[in-house]
Amino acid sequence: DSGVTQTPKHLITATGQRVTLRCSPRSGDLSVYWYQQSLDQGLQFLIQYYNGEERAKGNILERFSAQQFPDLHSELNLSSLELGDSALYFCASSAGTAHNQPQHFGDGTRLSIL
Amino acid sequence: AQKITQTQPGMFVQEKEAVTLDCTYDTSDPSYGLFWYKQPSSGEMIFLIYQGSYDQQNATEGRYSLNFQKARKSANLVISASQLGDSAMYFCAMRDLTGTASKLTFGTGTRLQVTL
User: Fold this and answer.
1) DSSP string across A39-96
2) Is residue B102 over pLDDT 80?
3) Which residues of chain A are under the pLDDT cut of 70?
4) How confident is the model at residue B98, as a pLDDT?
5) Which of B51, B97, B102 to mutate to test the interface with A (most CBs of A within 10 A)?
């Protein structure tokens, strides 16, 4: 158990819809990261937050947004969903941003768009 | 830009044997971290081992060790005494600091199958 909690584990929805993925980081971790894993793109970094502030954006679509709340949990919002958004979405957390600190991953949310 | 290359899409190893999973990386940053993660068929990502760019010794964690050759920009994972439960996808990743960002860049992974 990594200590990172993601909900829901599975999500099935239709094109055009909007969903929210939730992540609770490990106790004490201030940094939260979101990654997308798909068959064609592999594991891609989406966005990073540190103590409530956005730190970096990766290959995140404009239809996607995220935030980190004062209690450090984070949400990833996906809107106007397309078939290509079907993927496994991971949240990870680390104590800080130093390169020697591993990121610990949650079990992921598997999103299926029908 | 950082890049991780894993050239072995799939590997087979017999139980109790050792196996090496290859990873090469490319970065212009002098300071970086290298990580290996395991992804079983159930989907979760499990952190295995870390190697820092300035570390003088190769990292070891139980049956996992990292063969770090900085000049060659390689960070191969060695799994000793393979077990059936080691069957999974293995990802090499690099973390560097660009300003205040600290993302992981992943390779495409190697699928390891441990056989009897």
Assistant:
1) TTTEEEEEEEEETTEEEEE-S--TTEEEEE-TTS-EEEEE-S--GGG-EEEEEEEESS
2) no
3) none
4) 61
5) B102
